[in-house]
Amino acid sequence: GTIYLKDYTPYPFDLDQVHLTFRLAPSATRVLARLHLTPKGEGASLHLDGEELKLISLGIDGTALQPADYLLTETGLTVHAAALPEGAFTLETEVEIAPNANTALEGLYMSNGMYCTQCEAEGFRKITFYPDRPDVMARFHVRIEGDLPVLLSNGNAGASGEGWAEWDDPWPKPAYLFALVAGDLVATSGTFTTKSGLEVDLNIWVRPGDEDRCDFALESLKRSMVWDEEAYGREYDLSVFNLVAVDDFNMGAMENKGLNIFNSKLVLASPETATDTDYVRIEAVIGHEYFHNWTGDRITCRDWFQLCLKEGLTVFRDQSFTRDVRLGPVKRIEDAATLRTRQFREDQGPLAHPPRPNHYREINNFYTVTVYEKGAEIVGMLKRLAGDEAYRQALDLYFERHDGQACTIEDWLKVFEDVTGRDLTQFALWYTSAGTPHLKVTDAYADGRYTLTFRQSTPPTPGEPEKAPRHIPIAVGLLDLQGREVLSTQLLEMTEEEQSFSFDVAERPVPSILRDFSAPVVLQREQSPEEQAFLLAHDTDGFNRWEAGRSLAQRTLIAMTKGARPAQGYIDAIGNLLADDTLEPAFTAHCLALPGEDELAQALFAAGETPDPDAIHSARSALSRAIATAHEARLSALYDALEVKGPYSPDAEPAGKRGLRLACLSLLTKLDNGARAKALFDAADNMTESFGALSILIRAGLGDEASETFRARWQDNRLVMDKWFMVQVAACPPEDAVAKAEALSQDQAFDWKNPNRFRSLIGGLTANHAGFHAKDGSGYAFLADWLIKLDPMNPQTAARMSTSFETWRRYDSARQNLIREELTRISQTRGLSRDLSEMSQRLLG
Ligand code: ARG
Ligand code: ZN
Question: Any idea where the Aminopeptidase N-like N-terminal domain is (predicted)?
Fold first, then answer.
């Protein structure tokens, strides 16, 4: 059934202490639990969640319960009130579970002979009978018995011996933060001393053979710990921090208290096997999970509707961390670009939902870009409105007031209201209502006054036909015709449906609006290509400078999908950009990157048109060729000049050069028949250049030989082979994509039960926009077949991959019919999981 936010009620018992004993065995693990419970009032029966558990014994205070005392169902165990003693009592259960049969990778499961857990959101109920809800927080004592060298759980290490170990977590936590790992593992270790002088042992645990790829993860962890002390005054609070890499994992990583568990692709890195982008992601996710220690673990969520309380804030924190320690200003461009392509896309389709939803069937379906990335944008807006100083005060108050609690979005907003004296009632709509506001701007100049007029409106989303005006922070600057700032960045606060703001200026200025992407809205403004080119050359705000080039590219590409020739103004603007050696290479690289095909389809649909995937693909390819032809000499000179010599370093500066150099290479490959790309592929001593060259060759239809070589070299490295599977299908010419995906799905190396491998191949196809949207519907059928096949094994990953269908209403009626048929076929599959059944129904609308 559907669960509603409005139905929240507190749990009628306090649970202060939990003792768990695990007797590990692959097909018959025993879990003994002792829960110390105190009723909050009188007469309540005791409900515990539990799924797929074999109940061995059940007792209270040492006495076994009789069958009449309780009710056991598919979803849990209820002990009748009459069977409960008065006052506090200890409930004892013993259950049996089969970790080696757990293919859903939720609860306790096995990956390459190693035991591990994933409990968020509701996996703990597959481990033992328990009040599996985030507002029930308890202290855990864990004993693990198992014939494996490394036995880990949350908190500080307790007693241990041959074949057993005990762990004590002094910090009360909800069950979703529980973790257990047991295996033959090796650690890369270090230490960290907190500002207050607590010595912390740091361990990165991996399978033997992987230990030479852990240094960067360890250094990233240390950088995260320093950063959180400086930027947020948050220190670590246990004497050990363990981080484990596993190969079979549904998501990126998990912030279990003192025992973070990671998808191995977000831990393992060496210059030969990881790209610059991988390094950045690894550091960001290690930061993210570490920052959860305060924003997630010490202060958690009252219920799962509040998920973005911890996720939005923690993403905002990890984005700030990456900007501060690595990427600088281009980080904002990347985050804004991701938000627009992925979150705006979600808002535009049938899956649109508020960052804080008010109902769901399966919570795992709400770990979305809206909850995470839009949630982070909302925190960013709060910071902008409050100012840096008040933001820090509000956060200090949040930690002080709510430490040890399970909180709501209202609690969070209240600290900002208390610190700033603002009324955030209207602002709260960002959390409670779905959709992307559109902001129409017009301007006027008369008698030394320049006036900007904004009109906001938000297109309807499922279940929300009417939208109230939002509180939108709009950062604006004004430039004169020489490109000098006549008004430095000001924050305008829009609260009405329509609102004007005036400025005294001597001549008509050029406005730079929504600087730094100050709010997640679509800006709509009639702007000449000349003005866009002017801003691309002169805007003093980095984001808007990039944005001007982006809009110029988009406008050119859209015209080209209708038969226009590449606009000379755009080609010239790119020439100026390439000639400007004052720019950071990373910034120039972002400016050279054309809007993606899916993004163009999104823009066309938003403009009321029907995107044609093949026309979009051809336009993009033709524009690249035109740029390359016009600027061949300059690109070639840049390509030579940007070569990074010496040993590989993942630092931002060399990475920025490699990024721009590969962008040049991609263009030059339009003209040189792959000569440079082949040479780079052969010479490269790092994965960034090797994989970069391979991708470029495949995109140009010249990749067969390099693909073979690459595969032969890396066939024993799972993570590198994931990249290989992905790029074969994502980058190949669209007309080959489905056939290629079908062939690779028969390859003996295609281990579809591994989520990374599944996502590489199936996600590779959906990333090939024109390939996936092949006219004959073969791409749709391929995806649907695989979702139906994966669902009984791993519903979470199947449901997540189904979001590739969310854009279906954009396309022509023939494609819509084909997709509707596939979605209907999925939804009518017998025995479909709750996850995929909810998704297919929402997708159908
Ligand atoms: N809390 C984790 C993170 O973002 C994600 C866990 C998501 N798990 C899930 N089954 N939906 O850091
Ligand atoms: Zn998170």
Answer: 77-177
